[in-house]
Amino acid sequence: MKPYTILSAHCDKRCISEYHFKLTENMVEYFILFRMAPRKGRKEDQPAVVSVAPQAPEGVKRFGVAHIFASFNDTFVHITDLSGRETICRVTGGMKVKADRDEASPYAAMLAAQDAAERCKALGITALHIKLRATGGTKTKTPGPGAQSALRALARSGMKIGRIEDVTPIPSDSTRRKGGRRGRRL
Fold first, then answer.
1. Which of 166, 144, 164 is nearest to 154 (CA)?
2. 83-166: which CATH architecture?
């Protein structure tokens, strides 16, 4: 939408995108809308200096949590703050390779982990706790092929590793597994 200028009885200027009416205590003020003229003069704006996060002092470790979900179809590297609420970066193996069959490969997981580590360093995170997860539940409890290479890539990219924890969901007593009474027949 194009911006408009409002001129009211008080002659205060504001940019809006639709017609507005302002209701005061005793009367209704009607605003007259005029289309604003395009900017003249400088075409390009000077790039604003954006600092992403305050840099940690040298030698101080700032921790995050890397949730690595490695299935046999894809590998997710999801980095959050320590509480797990705020996502810092999420990269998958499928974002790094073209072919669908390569999404779960160790190479794609390595690229995803390197990309996530770069983003962490830019935000000032220097150390990671690792939470490794397989599909779990009624499905396989073993992590996919990308788990080990993602973990190795995080360590080799200069991130300090805190704790490594397996958080694969293991059912104590679960719903019925697929495949039927006699299992999947090959």
1. 164
2. 2-Layer Sandwich (3.30)
